[in-house]
Every structure is written in C-alpha cells, then in structure tokens.
Amino acid sequence: MLKRDKLAAMLRTITDEEFEAVWKETYGYVPNGERSDLVKDFVAEQYDTELDGRIKCIEALLGPVPSGPKPNKWLAPR
Fold first, then answer.
1. Residue 41 · residue 6 · CB < 8 Å
2. pLDDT per residue over 39-50, tens digit each?
C-alpha cells in the first residue's frame, strides 16, 4: 500500500501536462475528468509490478531534488 500512496502523492505534484503525458504513455489516450479522481483511478489500475516503473517515470519528470538553498552569488556594492 505504501507504493500506491507514494505514486498518488507524486501524481498530485506534477503539472497537468506531465500528468496527461504519463496517462497517455500508460493507456494511449488523454483522460477527461477531475484530476483527483483520475489520480485515484490511475493508482488503482496499476498492478503491483507496475508501481515501481511508474514511480521511476514520475521521479524522472520531477528531476533531482535540490540539496538546499542556492548560494547568493550576487554581491551588493559597498
């Protein structure tokens, strides 16, 4: 159940265009309906063996997680 919860949380964080791309890659068409309902349906339809692949796909969309705040390279004039 943890993988399904993780997948649902990740699907909620990506953009609508990315969500549609993931759905289309999986099912071959673009869905209609409320995003929250589609996330539930998408997660429920995945077999246990498919969950890891879908999670990796979405992680690739999200990119690497930043390791902290970026340093301020701009120096104020004195």
1. no
2. 888 888 888 888
